[in-house]
Amino acid sequence: MSGMMSFLSANWYLVLIAVVIAYLLGSVNTAVIVTKIFTKGKEDIREMGSGNAGFTNVLRSVGKVPAILTIVCDLLKSVIAVACGGWLFSIAAGSSENAVAVIRIGMYICGFFCILGHSFPVYFHFKGGKGIVTAAGMMLVADWRVFLLILGTFLLVFIISRIISLASIICACMFPVYTFVLTFFFDLPNGYPWLYVPLCTLAALGICVFVVIKHSSNIGRLIRGEEKKITAKK
Questions:
Q1: What is the pTM of this model?
Q2: Which residue in 81, 111, 110, 87 sits closest to 99, CA to CA?
Q3: Which of 17, 70, 73, 165 is in the most buried spot, having the most CB atoms within 10 Å?
Q4: CB-based contact 108:205 (threshold 8 Å)
């Protein structure tokens, strides 16, 4: 614990650089950009359909090709942000005994700020999306095991319900659960510091709470039975 806390306090400037990069990359909201390109600057995705600057609204309001571009680019920006953060943390961690754990925690921190940037983009008046695809990109880099479990959960719920918001909310809630189980039962016995487990779990829980709050209107519609099943603009 002392070693990891010492690292974070001694290298605060690296943490700051990493989170700023992650936030600025996250702020590149693909849904807004792609929609403007495909509508020749005439439409803003935040004024169409549900008003959300994300994959689902692009699919419903603009079309399949723009939606595919949105999901790919949102995933890519998160992967780049988290990988960059991991690289910066690895430089400072060097060959210390807690290096792997420090790098993983750095990835979670950068992932959170990338999601924050996606939802509150500085380039687009702080009005963005809900961060589901961006969170998936973070999981892919930070812990591929969690990514596969979340992907499986998402597909299962979506195939049954055909409602993306429901699948997203359930996956967000399962994120800290999967993270805790994997870090506690698989990583801790392999020599990871004990602080690694609660830090990763708390990071996942923070993202979970953030995503659920961003889906508050969807939750209301789900409760009332008004949430629409997925359809695409032809």
A1: 0.91
A2: 87
A3: 70
A4: no
